[in-house]
Structure formats: C-alpha cells, structure tokens
Request: fold
Amino acid sequence: MGVMRTVAAYAAPSATEPLVRTTIERREPGPKDVLIEIAYAGICHSDIHTVRGEWGAQQYPLTVGHEIVGVVAEVGSEVTRHRVGDRVGVGCMVNSCRECANCLAGVEQYCLKGNTGTYASVDRDGTITQGGYSTHIVVDEDFVLRVPESLPYESVAPLLCAGITTYSPLAHWKAGPGTRVAVVGLGGLGHMAVKIAHAMGAEVTVLSQTLAKRDDGLRLGADHYFATGDPATFETLANSFDLIVNTVSAELDLEAYLRLLALDGTMVNVGAPPEALPIQVFTLFANRRSFAGSTIGGIRETQEMLDFCAEHGIVPDIELIAAADINEAYERVLRSDVRYRFVIDIATLA
Ligand SMILES: [Zn+2]
Ligand SMILES: [Zn+2]
Reply:
C-alpha cells in the first residue's frame, strides 16, 4: 500500500452504533486519479441498509455516501478528463473490470465481475472503499462525472444515485411524448422519476398509498395522482400504462400493478423488496407485459443524465443538514419524513 493521507469523515463504528466523527485514510492520487474536495453528500436509503448490516456483514468503521459533489483539488500526471477547480461528482461506482462485455458496452453498473462500489467494496488495492461522508475522496478519472455549474450546487448531489436510478429505466424504455408512465411511491427516488419523466414529455401518474402528497406530486410534474389504498384505483387504471417505475422496496401486490400495464407495457423495479416476488405468468401473457429490474446507470449515461437535468433545470428537492445531524436524518428517512432528500453540508465536517 502506498502513501496515505488522513481526512475527516463520519463513520459507523459498528452495525448497531450511531455514526461518529472520525478520520479515514485516502490513497495519494495515482497517475489516473482525481482528488476531490467534497462539498455536499446526499443521504441514500442504501447508506442506512449498508451501515446497519442489513445487506450483508460489513467491515467497520465504515463511511458511506454515494451521492457526492465537490471540486477537483489535485489530478494525477495522466489525467485528461478533469482539471483542478472543476465541479465534479461521484455516484455509486468508482471502478469496474473494464474488460467484460457489459463494461465494453458502457454499462459498467452491470459489470460481469461486479463493479467496485463507492463504499463497502473491495478496492483494487485490497482496501475497503469509503464513501462520501468525508472531506475528500480519490477516484479514477473515468468514474468522475462533470457537474454542470448551472445546477444549484447544494441540491445536485442526489442526482448521482436517485437521479440516475430513475433516469436510466425512463430512458431505456423510451419515456417521452405519447407514453404513459406511472411512478409508484413518492420518496427520494419517486420524486426524481416524476421530474425526469415529465421533462422527457411523458404523461405522468403517481401511485402512492394515500393522497397526502398529492399537491407535491402535481407541483413536481405529475399529471395525475391516485391512492393505491383505494381498490377502485386498480379498476380505473387497468391496462393504461406503457411503463411503471416501482421505487418502493416494501412488498406490494405485484399482480395488481402488472394488470395496470397496457399492450407491451413494462413494470420495472428500481427498489428491491427482501422477499421473492410471486408472479403469475398468465398476467404477463395478457397485453404481452414485461417485468424488469434496473439498477443505477453507466458512467456515460450518468453524464447524459446530468446534462439533461442541466438543460431542463432539474434538481432534487432537498433539506440541507450539518454533519452532526446525520443520525437524526437517518431516523427521519426511516419514517419517510423527508421531502425529498437529505444533503450533508460537508463544510460542517471539516
Ligand atoms: Zn443510493
Ligand atoms: Zn466488467
């Protein structure tokens, strides 16, 4: 292991303790590396699942955070894509094998050898990657995104996970003028799906448990808003969507949602319930329906998403917090008490 430098961070000491201010080690930038001084980091539900060991055992202390924006502070001798002073971002991946069919196709999120996650992954030097709740991060230039300066700096970070996670399926299944898109759940992911699908020109319907956030949903760009707690919703909307983006990780009555798909319609899950989902293939026969999954997006598509959001003036609705408030924010995320994403002001950590 080469030279390291010590930087301030917030880390979980174990799966059951609150996060605490501490220091972590970052490698010195290699020839292809960029050192980023982090300005803001979003809080993603995945951060909480991971630090609490709910998605498998972890090594502690662990620093999470994969919605990162900041400024390039140093570049390695062979870096060509970024310059000192550039505003940049890092999302859910910091590397991949770069050789498999999927990496060569530019969809590194589906790397057949597994991409290197921004945190809690084994890095190329054998260390465990540490995420963005930290003052600095060192990342290979190929996994660093350009963040357009026209986007408000403090709001832009959640695009790097919540933004690309919803943009990718909307782009892949060609949401646009004349398509009818339903977004299930109006949380961090759902509110981005509504904004992006609306900007793409689709007719957007929110399907939420109750009508409590209806005014918000319409303000964000939805054309229609229905409560899934009302059984009549599933009769009214039968056979009426080309694409359903399900952002909810909790179990739901999959059959009831699949029956909302029109001819050749697709339901795509970006949230993952812990249990297996039962599907009646006969429900897929009707209307030649598809059920699919999608996770984040490749580097090229993530850049495309950032540029699209800049062009359309789209950023997440956020609540800016100090680093000392991370643990409280976690509790509020778990109660769905956030509209719609927490962003940590990393200056409060330095
Ligand atoms: Zn995330
Ligand atoms: Zn690969």
